[in-house]
Amino acid sequence: MREVAIIGIGLHPWGKFPQKTFIDLGVEAVSKALVDAQIQWKEIETICSGIYIWGGNAGHLSGQYLASVFGETGIPIVNVYNACATGASAMRMATMSIASGQVDVALAVGMDVSPEGFLGAKSDDPKQDRDVLRWRMVGMPNPIYWAIECRKRMEKYGTTEEDLARVKVLLSKYGAQNPNSRYKKIYTMEEVLSSKMVSDPLRLYEICATSDGAAAVILCAASKARQYTSKPITVAASTLGSALYGDPTLRISAISAPAKAEAPLLSESYSASQQAYKQAGIGPEDIDILELPDNSSWHYLQYLETCGFCGEGAAESMVREGQTQIGGRLPVCPSGGFASFGEAIGAQAAWQVAEVVMQLRGQCGSRQVADAKVGMAQTYGLMGNSGTTILKR
Amino acid sequence: MNIVGPEGKMIPALPDLFVWNEDQVQLMSAHCQSCDTYFFPAFHEQHRPGCSRQGVQKVLLNKNGILKSYTIQHYMPPLPFKTEGNITPYIIGLVEFPEGIQIAGIVKECPFHALKIGLSMEVVTFTLYRNEQGQEVVTWAFQPTDPIRDK
């Protein structure tokens, strides 16, 4: 397999843009990535595009739509949906297309315009789509799942309300310094702890919003990368994981879980990260920066354990001691995280990769992690899927 | 055991999930005799890898379980969650049944201060709304096995 490098990234900032369509956002991200890579559109040899699930046929064939805007060239285009790991799946396909020797240059892209409020059901057939049951029979939007896991954690490890609030306070400082973030306000503990309760124990500022955004990544055979950039970023691993039987997580969409744990919590993310460590030939101790999916404060704490950055129940003390801050042992989400961006399902995993690339290039200004050499982007995932990307300079 | 409720008065919001008679409400699971896994809903099988998937039978779960986690929800979810008016704040509980499966559902008859992991819960019905025929459209729910007197 050939080594693969990232030569360009492009982002449409995160926010709410009611005047724009998903393709407007995607076109801006791709345009910026082409400029960043100093490459011509005609040199792109394959497109791996994240599906925009709320956009009908145009959204399901988002890659073809993008190609029509930039000019159709007959190249292979694959459209992929893996929920939160959609962008990671596009990354993995683009990486493999180059690693296998089939193409030299590939585009991975994701774009999303979120509906307002809680993300809702997509069908009304409970026999085919178990997701219908949680809506019609129980009334369970996504944050309820996170709250249920968070309550288990509080019971097991003594996680406090302050531990949950501290995550938002920390991330808001970084988000305020990121030109692409949606939320720029810096929060105090008091402000977070007095924000509205949504799904007890999770408060409004401890749950990510739903946003619009787009991210594009241009990848190239490492042997040719220096034709385009002086700072290629090597793809050390690009993996996908699925769930393991016996995972005790009450997973979004499900209304049941096994009583006896035979696998780790969030086993799909455990699987993806373990594969990535193996593929990259490095372990969590070698990672300098981590972008994890902080859909809620619970995720931030849990993912540190799930991906092997601390032992069971040790995440809270890691955060309390400042180990996850810029300047600490493992800076976590120096981008500001989902807390500052909000989730844009089809785009967010590609955005996480772009943030790691900017850190490894040393382009992050006041929120730059000094001398970051190896970075990891980790996704969450609906119904048992997750992606991990490890990058190094 | 009645598969539908007492004639005419109550109907489930969706079929094949639970049954009831005058004495008790039970959730409808399925059990795989080959890999010893319980499923809920019964029609969504989730076998152990390598299982032959032979010998899956519908079973009714014990009417009692233990509360393993919970949340109090303060915002109404969007449709298709349909209730008569705004029911917030409401409790969602995760209840573990002796067969070895945990199931989520609305918790009623439980003041917030009494919520505690380890509480014994029984399966009951919860009326979501009345339909045009005047029937109560119900789902499964949980309530403390021993009634809690509010302080």
Description:
The complex is a heterodimer of chains A (393) and B (151). Chain A folds into 2 domains: 4-115 and 213-233, Peroxisomal Thiolase, Chain A, domain 1 (3-Layer(aba) Sandwich); 131-209 and 236-392, 3-Layer(aba) Sandwich (Peroxisomal Thiolase, Chain A, domain 1). The longest helix of chain A is centred in the N-terminal third of the chain and has 16 residues, at 22-37. Chain A has helices at 22-37, 56-60, 62-70, 86-99, 131-138, 142-157, 161-175, 189-193, 222-225, 267-280, 297-306, 315-320, 337-341, 348-361; strands at residues 4-15, 46-50, 77-80, 105-113, 197-199, 202-203, 212-221, 233-242, 256-258, 289-291, 374-378, 385-392. Helices cover 36% and strands 19% of the residues of chain A. The mean pLDDT of chain A is 97. The mean pLDDT of chain B is 93. Chain B has one domain. By secondary structure, chain B is mostly beta strands. Chain B has strands spanning 10-12, 18-20, 25-32, 37-39, 56-60, 64-73, 90-97, 101-107, 120-130, 136-144. Chain A binds chain B through residues 117-118, 120-121, 124, 126-127, 130, 132-141, 144, 147-149, 151-152, 155, 196-202, 245-246, 250, 255-260, and chain B through 13-14, 17, 37, 39-41, 43-44, 46-49, 68-83, 87, 90, 92, 94, 96-97, 100-106, 117, 139-140.
Give me some keywords for this one.
A: Peroxisomal Thiolase, Chain A, domain 1, Peroxisomal Thiolase, Chain A, domain 1, 2 domains, two-stranded antiparallel ribbon, globular, B: 151 residues, 4-stranded antiparallel beta sheet, 0% helix
